[in-house]
Amino acid sequence: MDKRIENYEVCLPDWGAVLPELATLLSAEYSGGQFEAAEDAFCDSGRDSAEWSMIGANGLSVTIIFEKYEGYLFGTIKGCGQSFSKAKLLLYSSYISQGGNPNAQARP
Questions:
Q1: Alpha carbon distances (Å) from 8 to 4, 48, 75, 76, 84
Q2: CA within 20 to 30 Å of 106's CA: 1, 11, 76, 78, which one?
Q3: Helix/strand/coil (H, E, C) string of the chain?
Q4: What is the pLDDT along the chain (108 residues), one digit of tens a residue?
Q5: Could you tell me the sign of the dihedral formed by the alpha carbons of 42, 43, 47, 49, in that order?
Q6: Of 108, 51, 47, 50, which Cα lies nearest the Cα of 83?
Q7: How many whole angstroms separate alpha carbon 45 and alpha carbon 48?
Q8: pTM flag (> 0.85)
């Protein structure tokens, strides 16, 4: 059984819409509005960039990059196993449903 840690990166305009389900897949604690509060704090901070992370079970995680002049935010999930595979599928389908170009995003 291969246990190598993998990464999957996606750029979404609305991470808040996908984070509750992603938290469940990652077995991470997340409460509604938590990400939006962090994004608001970043906007008020005057910084050029910052990271927000959610850590789940078995080393699964997601890190989202806030950037001062970007409305679409890059995020990377890290992990392995069945939960990671399901999380990749969730992010890909969210990317497509949020208007992403399927030719511009790696398929899980």
A1: 13, 24, 8, 5, 9
A2: 1
A3: CCCCCEEEEEEECCHHHCHHHHHHHHCCCCCCCHHHHHHHHHHHHCCCEEEEEEECHHHCEEEEEEECCCCCEEEEEEECHHHHHHHHHHHHHHHHHCCCCCCCCCCC
A4: 457 899 999 999 999 999 999 999 999 999 988 999 999 999 999 999 999 999 999 889 999 999 998 889 999 999 999 999 999 999 999 999 999 999 999 999
A5: positive
A6: 108
A7: 9
A8: yes
Burial 46-61 (b: 16+ CB within 10 A, else e): eeeeeebebebeeebb
